[in-house]
Amino acid sequence: MSAHKLSRRKLLTAGASAGLLGLPLFSSLKANAGSASPMRLILMFDPNGTVQEQFWPTLGASETDFSLNQITQPLEAFKDRLLFLKGLSISVHEKGPGGPHQKGVGGLFTNSTLQEGTFVDGDGAMAGWANGISVDQEVAQNIGQQSFLPSLELGVRSLEADVRGRVSYAGPGNPMPPINAPRDAYERLFSGISDVDDTQRAERKSVIEAVKAQYATLEPQLSAVDRLKLEQHLDLVRGIERRLNIGVGTGTCERPVEPDSMSDDSEDTMPNIADLHGKLIASAFACDLTRVASIQFQNARNEFRYPWVGSMGIGHSLSHASDSDTDSRAQLVSRGAWLATQLANLMTQLDAIPEGSGTVLDNTLILWGNELGIGNIHSHDNVPFLVAGGAGGHFRMGRFLDFGGKSHSGLLVAVLNAMGVPATSFGDPDYADPALDLG
Amino acid sequence: MGLARRERENTRQLRSAWRCGVLRLVARNTSLLTALASLLTACAADQGSSEVNNQAGSPMASSVAPPISTGVPNPVEPNFEGLACGAENPVPAQGRLLTRVQYDLTVRDLFGGLVTGDFAARFPEENQVLGFSTNAEFHRATSWLSEGHMTAAEAIAGQAITHLDQLLPCSTSAADSTCAGGFISDFGAKAFRRPLTPDEVAPFTTLYDAASAAGGFSSGIKLVIEAMLQSPQFLYRFDFDRSVPVTNSVPVNNSAATDPNLGSVSSYRVGGYEMASRLSYFLWNSMPDAELFDAAAQGNLASADRVRAQAKRMLSDPKANDGVLDFFREWLALRNFGSLVREYPDAQPAAFSQDWRGSLELFLQEMFWGRLPKTADASGSPPSSAPSDGSQPLANGTLSDLFQSHVAYVNPALAGLYGVSLPAGAAAQDFFPLALDVDKRAGLLTQPALMALIAHPDQTAPIQRGVFVRDQLLCQPAPPPPPTVNAVPPKPDPSLTTRQRFTQHSEDGTCSGCHALLDPLGLPFEDFDQLGRYRDQENGQELDLSGALNGVRDTTIEGDFDGPLELGARLAGSSQVQECIVTQWYRYGAGRVEQNEDLCSLAQVIANFKNSGGNFGELLVSLVASDAFRYRSEVPVAAAEMAASDTPSGDAQTSEVTQ
User: Fold this and answer.
1) Which residues does B298 contact at the CB level (< 8 Å), separation at least 6?
2) CB contact under 8 A, B232 and A241
3) Cβ atoms < 10 Å from Cβ of B445
4) Distance from first CA to last CA of chain B, Å, rounded?
5) B320-331 vs B272-283: helix crossing angle, rounded to 10
6) At what angle do helices B353-369 and B320-331 cross, to 10 degrees?
7) Distance separating alpha carbons of residues B574 and B553, to the nearest angstrom
8) CB-based contact A375 B11, cutoff 8 Å
9) pLDDT tens, B399-440?
């Protein structure tokens, strides 16, 4: 298999002619030749619940007749490609160990309970990782093999390195850490493994052969626990080998300008990082480097301010503000609206990439979720779920639905089905609803 | 659905049982520590005779880490009756992946300083358990990390071959396959931290042969280095030396022994090379040196006495500061300095994060090593160099120093902030030891950097300061507020003191239970603002620094006190604080949260630490000489496979695709 190399010269050309930081020129799509356009999935997460009355639209005469409120107002231009899903609960939180944030984060995209463990939640409860695969990884394991990276996990100041900081799971107890620095994400996509010539590729393969031989020699000597650990690591090495073989980009896809190095833990860089991450996702989709991505904004326990929207309160504490604390509530709304703006920007980028008779956005399903519905009572009901994008026509968009208190597991199944994964249930069997009918 | 309903009912009952004033957080560890005190007398410390002097105790309702794919059980409430001290009942060891810090330090030492760089800087952050990144169970590889291992290995090997003359066992003019074979054996033994087996050598020889045929000698060596640095023997510390099984041992305290699904557990003394690595990564955060390798080869790491002697030697090496600093950074969450934002009406927007971090780290190093404070009240003594000048004394610092020293370090930026004058021409990165006003500051609790670290951007954080004392210093966390409480700190008010604004906590019936544990521990720090500056009044009002230690296990420190100095003096002599810091270091070093099987060793380390007058060097030496550090157990493969579930990794699905 021969793979096309993304040359330095092309990089310079792209940067110079586009004149836009990170916005690539796309002249063709690798995966698009002669077949139906591929589906893409993006999961988006932010923590600590929402201000319900400003997240949900105001409903008019029918499910298609609604007006946006303050938090989702920035998405007005895409109103016909939004699907608001009220009345869904992360019901699996009722079961197993852990605290409310832990269970919500762990269960959001897995519909799974948590394992036992020693991570401590805000209420002192202890738990380990989620005990199941997440919906993005289920998709990645089905369709991700056709692209360079099966999936891409990004974070915007999402730095909590425990169960509250992981929404994506390759399997039970096997979380995927998000990349917070855009430069690191760029490297994974466009330079680290992908940017090699034939000599280097051959060298890497020979090195990996020697490394695999070491795994084979070592494994029989180890204890049972260590053998499992070693086998999982060997799978990762094989993944690199696969990526070396698959290569990237066969068309004239241009890669974006390499992002500058910057702190990934600063209120000064958060807006820029959110912007760069969005552009990297768009580039990765355009070049068909991946079809599955997630982007998570911070974690439940944070003390972050959002000075760029005038919110100087400190993150997690704000979400516990009383309903009567109007100033704190206003800050939460402006933060939510900023997040919606990031979603709108991402949709705009995807909508600018032509594909078939439409755009990549038409074939993208974005699911925005949260581990809580309401922060100041730790409620897992009415979680703010919003599907955005064209979703490949699998969902009828432009609607505001209220399910009145169902497990959100049916939503995850519907997402899997839309992405071409023939599931009838997902996650914990005690909360395994069939697919929601969103068509 | 029956199960689900039961679970829901249980959840409801748990919720209704929740009471604000109940100390339930990390209840297990709290009770473990409570039990430690009684163990201290019960433990007839005879660590040297473990192999033959086991005493059986009664089985315990304990728990053990199952195969990694199924997660770690939250160990059950321990039963201490019949715990037999002197018998090694080690927790099953688990391979430990190098942390980012360990990776870079290991590369430094592996190449004798010839190769330099922050190679691990772009590796993903380790998962943290109770603040520590060293947890063996939770620090795991991901596909992102594996890519990092590859690109780092390439960068390192690229640098290394520019120093071939210093790395080869032969002259570069005699560089041939014989020389390459010598390099594979010699360098490999350093990289793998033990001699290679023939089976391990062969793939490297094959790799060298092909690569050197295509690209010459140095190309062959380069790829060998790349492959070694990506091999699991380099990236992990695995224990599998079974040459000294523990005789007469029935590991009764280990539930794996009695769990019919797992079968019996075998226990072993940690092998020589494995012990060398345990020592070096705990004390240096890096690989063993030549002397440790020699000791391993000669069987000189078998007895507790020999291990003690090695540990003392290692503590006199400047590299020991790497290990000590890493612990302090994790224990006190110094990583949080990275994103600190602090404001104060009459100060420039604060950008002191790195200054504070440097200041606090110097203080901690001095407290650990016990160097006499070279205090100079801003009159111009030379800048302090961190204790890495090659003439390290054995650690002489004590817990008492940590809480009562009158030194702090300031550089020009901090001197400006705190109104101290430094000699003209002091460079920005030069820190000067400063003799503190003994009436205002003493020890860790009043370090300007710590007070700035535990604060809100625009005001002090009395609750968080109280939480810090309970969590990190007393190991007795208080419960958090119920979700419905408005947790937004009251806004600064120019007519009120912080204490006045926070009084609602103690007056509100639903909050007073918990806040009786926290507020009286945090409000006495109000003489330090959110920049760590001293103040004797706030908003024109005199400060009330009264406080109280409530609900602590060490009743000798219980009761009212006035201000942080009195609190520090109490903590300095408290058995509970001694137990806590040993426990924290134990979690860091053992790479796990303490389990029942650790208790006896932990109790012995605590006893030795107390008997030494709280000497930090003794803490570390006792810890590495303990049974828990020197013995391990493992679950037989067949039994564990029965219990394991099939878990795909991030790229598990890819093996069929590989060509």
Assistant:
1) none
2) no
3) 24
4) 45
5) 60
6) 120
7) 10
8) no
9) 999 999 999 999 999 998 899 999 888 998 899 999 999 999
**Structure tokens that stand for B452 in this block:** 């700035």
| Beta strand segments in B404-460, E | 407-410, 432-435
Nearest to B200 among A217, A312, A431 (CB): A217
First-last CA distance in chain A: 39
Residue type, B404: Q
* Distance, CA of A331 to CA of A306 (rounded, Å): 9
CA dist B410 and A216 (Å) reads 54
Return the beta strands (E) in B20-133 as ranges: 96-97
Measured in angstroms, the CA of B515 and the nearest CA of chain A are apart by 15
Please determine, for residue B649, whether its predicted confidence score (pLDDT) is greater than 80: no
DSSP assignment of B469-520 equals IIIIISS-PPPPPPTTS--SPPPP-TTS-HHHHHHHHHHSHHHHHHHHHHHH
Q: Burial level of B198, CB count in 10 A (0-12/13-18/19+)?
A: exposed
Cβ contact B140–A232 (<8 Å): yes
Q: Is B643 exposed, middle or buried (0-12, 13-18, 19+ CB in 10 A)?
A: middle
β-bridge partners, A82: A388
B78-B79-B82 Cα angle (round to 5): 135
B488/A320 touch (CB, cutoff 8 Å), yes or no: yes
3-class state of residue B124 by DSSP: coil
- Distance of alpha carbon A114 from alpha carbon A106, whole angstroms: 7
Q: Do B637 and A227 touch (CB under 8 A)?
A: yes
Res. B374 pLDDT band, cuts 50 70 90: very low
Angle at A114 between CA A112 and CA A120, to 5 degrees: 145
Instruction: Choose from B7, B118, B339, B343 for mutation: most chain A CBs within 10 A.
Output: B339
Residue A24, both tokens = 């690539």
Name the band, by pLDDT with cuts 50, 70 and 90, for residue A245.
Answer: confident
Of residues B47 and B421, more confidence is placed in: B421
How far is Cα B319 from Cα A363, in angstroms, rounded to an integer? 56
Identify the residue among A118, A194, A374 best suited for mutation to test binding to B, counting B beta carbons within 10 A and taking the highest. A118
Encoded tokens for B624: 């590495």
Enter the tokens of residue A28: 């063709």
A-chain residue closest to B229, CA distance: A211
For residue B127, the chain A residues in CB contact (below 8 A) are 161-162, 175, 177
On chain B, the residues whose CB falls within 8 A of the CB of A430 are: 1, 3-4, 7
CA dist A113 and A129 (Å) reads: 9
List, in order, residues 6 or more apart from A199 with CB less than 8 Å away: none
| Chain A CB contacts of B635 below 8 Å | 223-225
B3 contacts A116? CB cut-off 8 A: no
pLDDT for B508 equals 66
pLDDT of residue B83: 45
**Strand A66-67 to A58-59 pairing:** antiparallel
Rounded Cα distance between B454 and B466, Å, is: 10
Where are the extended beta strands (E) located within A278-363? 292-297, 354-355, 358-359
With contact defined as beta carbons under 8 Å apart, do A82 and A388 qualify?
A: yes
pLDDT at B480: 72
Note whether B177 and B208 are within 8 A (CB). Answer: yes
d(CA B298, CA B170): 26
Tens digit of pLDDT for each residue in A191-210?
Answer: 877 777 889 999 999 999 99
pLDDT tens digits, B70-118: 333 332 233 333 445 554 567 788 999 999 999 999 999 999 999 999 9
Q: Are A73 and A343 in contact (CB under 8 A)?
A: no
Q: How confident is the model at residue A252 (pLDDT cuts 50, 70, 90)?
A: low
DSSP lists the bridge partners of residue A85 as: A385, A401
